[in-house]
Predict the 3D structure of the following.
Amino acid sequence: MVATSAYVIRPLRIRETRLRRRIVHNPSMRFRSIVVVFASAAGLMAPAALVMPESAWGAHSVGTSGQIAWVRSAATRFVTAELAGSGADACGILNAPLRATEHGRTCAQRWNAKLARLLRKPGARAQLRAQKRAIGTAAVVVHGNVASIDLPTTLMGNANRFVWTENCWMLAG
């Protein structure tokens, strides 16, 4: 028997240990302990749900790591060209049908004019910078020679679709 200042602690006798039932064998205690465990886990995970980005919960990329990196690289080069106002660099990422001359204007001429209009708008550069940051964590899905990247805003047109052509990933709109 061990004596402390106010309490006396003694080891359990063998008979007393047999009389006490373990929680696992007591049906009502088993249910309560399960509820407590799940409630505690939910309480710990709730703040994490507010902090973690959507991409960490369910979005994931499909394809080889090389394909995914290449698509992200092409998207980053396109947005970088837009931020720089370089129509020629932007055209370098576009699929061949989109680079064609239209009404006597080359792709670079059209994109220079388009980017000049875009970059004059208030907040356009901030939006492009945010898009550039989002590319690194965006989900990329590659199926055969077509890939798409899941960004909050579109790179061009109404879809973020790339095609494998000319031995690289090209933005198809």
Q: What stands out?
A: The longest strand covers residues 161-165.
